[in-house]
Amino acid sequence: MMFRFAYPMLLVLLTGVVGYLVFEFFKKPVAITHSMTSRLAELADKGSGIWQRLPLILRTVCLILLVLTAARPQFYNVSREIRSPGVDIVMCIDTSGSMFHYAWPAVVEKMTQVLDTYPKVKGMQVMNDMGQYMYSQYVGKWIPDTPGRRKAVIARLRSWNAFSNSSPVEGITRAIRTFATPDHRISIYVFGDEFTGSSVDEVVRTVDGLNTSGRDGERKVRIHAIGFPTVFSAPGAGEQTGVRFATLMRILCRRNNGTFVGLNSTSP
After folding, report:
1. Distance between CA 218 and CA 177 in Å, rounded?
2. Cα separations (Å) of 148 from 33, 144, 145, 153?
């Protein structure tokens, strides 16, 4: 976990805050005329010391906080390059209207990040949550991993809006049945926002039956998932299907040696 500012250039404004503090601290006080010396002494006693500087200190602190807030401090995870020449990956992407209209730029960005995490794979495949392939000429077989093909996949993804029922089950099960073998392990990455199926437990049992363990005790397919919080962006959308998606994918990822990441924003 690392820390950074989204707009670090705004931190230059802190020099102005420091200048303001120095100016106010060292400027000469305004002269006061008063006919009663006793009244002057009383005012001096009440306004001396730290209490006299308190308004200036509070103003300065407020200015610093405003600058830091404008610079948008944020935590982020550092990507770690994985060099595994024998890995094949399948992208299973929810292409429903809620994803396409409220989270698609973020989907494209996360897809790019996943591909960058694997600089070289034996093969890759892209299908939607219904199990529909992005490229019909590669149905049931791997897309060759080349720099040009990666660029073509990302370009196609930007406008890919195939029919979807907002449930990743069909895509996951089709990927396992088609590409996983006892001696050939793959990784599935699920991108989604909702689960509209009838039963989480039924899906878990189905995947358990398909993704069995090998002689070494390891399952042949790793399942990872990224959850997009579109239910908080779409007008009139209920939260139940989004919560059920997160619940399902947390269970599947844990049982299938993967990782679930729930995003807190649909922005890239």
Report:
1. 17
2. 81, 10, 8, 9
Average pLDDT over residues 116-120: 91
Residue 149 to residues 92, 144, 146, 161, Cα–Cα distance (Å)? 17, 7, 5, 19
User: What's 183's DSSP letter?
Assistant: T
Contact between 121 and 88 under an 8 Å Cβ cutoff? The reply is: yes
CA dist list (Å): 227 to 176, 193, 258: 20, 5, 14
Say yes or no to pLDDT of 75 above 70: no
Predicted local confidence at residue 210, as pLDDT: 94
> Is 88-262 CATH 3.40.50.410?
yes
132 Cβ contact partners less than 8 Å away, ≥ 6 residues apart? 162, 163
CA–CA distance, 100 with 230 (Å, rounded to integer) = 10
Give the per-residue pLDDT at 82: 45
Domain boundaries, the chain: 2-76, 88-262
For residue 223, pLDDT over 90 is answered with: yes
Please give the backbone phi and psi of residue 6, each rounded to the nearest 5 degrees, phi first.
Answer: -65, -35
- Look up residue 111 and give its DSSP letter: H
